[in-house]
Amino acid sequence: MPHINLLPWREAARKEAQQRFVTILVVVLVAAFASMFALSSFYSALKDGQNVRNNFLSREIQILDRRIAEIRELDKKKESLQQRMRLIEELQSNRNLGTQIMDEVAKIVPSGVYFTTLERRGDAIQVTGKSESNNRLSTMIRQVESSYLLENASLQGIVAGEEQSRLLSDFNMQFNVKSFDEIGEAQE
């Protein structure tokens, strides 16, 4: 006898296709969630690693900033010490400067020129006195300019002598003491 299938096979095939579709859908959803979770975890790990590196760099920058501040402080101290050393050297070299100035002034004053006052203000020396002739004053100016210690002689005025001493003229002159560096170079 022939075999007749009376079961509703189309409905069974439809149910089976629907179950396969749901199974495939569930598998795709699980795979999508798993891949999203994996990507999220991967990028989260990258972000955490970068944050760790950033924190490390921030700490190192703070350490270097403190070191830079210490170096700047040391540079200030060094500059202060160097300035003190220069001042001490200058004082040491200028210790006998007053004596040297008086010795040099005695050398540049020609005969026939007499000082009534000699006054020093800083590096400037103001001289007033009497001279027998203007030639002697010009000789004195040339000697100031050729001196290793003195410079910039300027004659500020010559006044003819009064009736009692017509032979002597009154004069005012100013010249400067060379700076510490120029004196050192001239003596070498």
Automatic annotation (TrEMBL):
- Any transmembrane segments, and where? 21-46
InterPro entries associated with the record = Extracell_DNA_Util/SecSys_Comp (IPR052534), PilN (IPR007813)
Keyword Transmembrane assigned: yes
> What's the superkingdom here?
Bacteria
Query: Among the record's GO biological process terms, what is one?
Result: type IV pilus assembly
List UniProt keywords, sorted A-Z: Coiled coil, Membrane, Transmembrane, Transmembrane helix
Coiled-coil features, chain-numbered ranges: 54-94
What name does UniProt use for this protein? Pilus assembly protein PilN
User: Which organism is the protein's source?
Assistant: Pseudoalteromonas ruthenica
